[in-house]
Write a structure and sequence with these properties.
Length: 234
């Protein structure tokens, strides 16, 4: 029953992340001529993490991201079966959140200024999958390394951990939105891409593998790096 509650928490948290983060991107647009859209979208994703960290953090740890869960797994913080349950809950949550966005926008509330329900893409890196992978690996490495450091038993950040993690996600979004739309989260990319495909836009699916593989690689590198750094402490 305890694990079921964790899965439900991860489902809710990821759903909220997609609704508010991707929904903001849909509303304000994320083109290079509208820098304000970058900031608003980055803040939306970051603030969701802050809110959810203090809401469900004591239940599931508020991963709401398969890359984060992989980092925790490789750091010895969770079992493989629990990891699998987290990833499934996160992906279903992201898909549900994207479906709710499709419902809201189909009801004529507003126009989708970006298309694809806030999905990620490679257009701003000239369609280069290699460039997209490099960007996502680096950004995920930074994000997951921060999480592992903040949540370490040796850390002493008091109740500010959620805020630090949320601000870090905001920062990587500010840099990455203009390049890949910033994923650093396979579930956040899978949900919008699948719903966009159902709606007839298959473009996000064609490069979806980049936003699944690269964040997982970045997370694995972060976990290995942090384990080395922590074990090297005197």
């Amino acid at each position: 029953m305890e694990n079921i509650k964790k899965y439900i928490a991860e489902f809710i948290g990821t759903m909220v992340l997609v609704i508010l983060g991707c929904g903001t991107a849909m509303l304000v647009g994320c083109d290079a001529e509208n820098g304000g859209g970058y900031i608003l979208t980055a803040l939306a994703f970051g603030l969701v993490i802050v809110g959810m960290a203090y809401c469900i953090g004591n239940i599931s740890g508020c991963h709401i991201n398969p890359a984060v869960s992989l980092g925790v797994l490789l750091s010895g913080g969770m079992s493989f079966p629990l990891f699998c349950g987290y990833v499934l809950a996160q992906c279903v949550g992201a898909f549900t959140g994207s479906g709710l966005l499709a419902l809201i926008f189909s009801m004529g509330a507003v126009d989708d200024k970006t298309g694809g329900f806030g999905s990620n893409g490679l257009a701003n890196v000239n369609g280069s999958a290699a460039a997209g992978c490099v960007v996502e690996i680096i950004l995920t490495f930074i994000f997951v390394l921060t999480i592992l450091g903040v949540t370490s038993k040796k850390a002493n950040h008091g109740s500010f951990g959620g805020l630090i993690i949320g601000l870090t996600l905001t920062l990587v979004h500010i840099f990455g939105i203009g390049l890949t739309g910033t994923s650093v989260n396979p579930a956040r990319s899978i949900g919008p891409a699948l719903v966009a495909a159902i709606e007839g836009n298959t473009d996000p699916v064609s490069c979806l593998w980049v936003f699944i593989l690269a964040p997982l690689v970045g997370a694995a590198l972060a976990a290995l790096t942090y384990r080395f750094l922590e074990s090297s402490k005197a």
